[in-house]
Amino acid sequence: MIPLRALRAHPHYADLFQLVPRLLWPILWWQLNRMIRWMQAEQVIDVLFSTSPWGLITIRYAGYKPDPDLYRPAPRIFRPLNDASWASAVPVEIELRTLSAATRTALFLPREAGGGGIARSAMTEGALTSPLNTS
Question: How many domains in the chain?
C-alpha cells in the first residue's frame, strides 16, 4: 500500500485531499490504494473517476492499453493509369497549347469572357460602390 503522505504529495491526488475533510482521509487513502492496485492488475493506463465529499471513489471510465494487432488498415489499391477515371473531359481534338489565350479563357472561364448571355459590361451592374472615399 502506498503511504498516505506519498499520496498527499502526488500531483494527481493532492487536490482530492483538499476536497475531503481530514477526518475522512483514511477512507480516501483506502479507496485510492484500491484503485491503483486495480489499475495495475487490469493493466489500465488511464482512468476517469469522481470523488464524493466522503472520500468514496467512483470510476467513470477506464482506458485499457490498446492491442497493437487490433487495427489493421485496408491495403491501398492504386488505379492503373489507363483507368477511365483518369480521363479528361476536354475533347481530344482540342490541343490546348495551340489555342490563343482568349480562346482558352472563353473555353474554361466563360464568366470572365462574358459568357452565359451576359455582356462583359453588365457583369458588375448593380454592384455596390466602395464605402471608402478616396478623393
Answer: 2
Could you tell me the pLDDT band of residue 92, with boundaries at 50, 70 and 90? low
Strand (E) positions, 1-135?
44-51, 57-64
Least-confidence region, from 2-11, 54-63, 84-93, 120-129: 120-129
Q: Are residues 57 and 9 in the same domain?
A: yes
pTM more than 0.85: no
Domain that residue 28 falls in: 4-64
Full DSSP string of 11-33: TTTHHHHHHS-GGGHHHHHHHHH
* Bridge partners, 63 (sequence order): 46
In a domain, 60, yes or no: yes
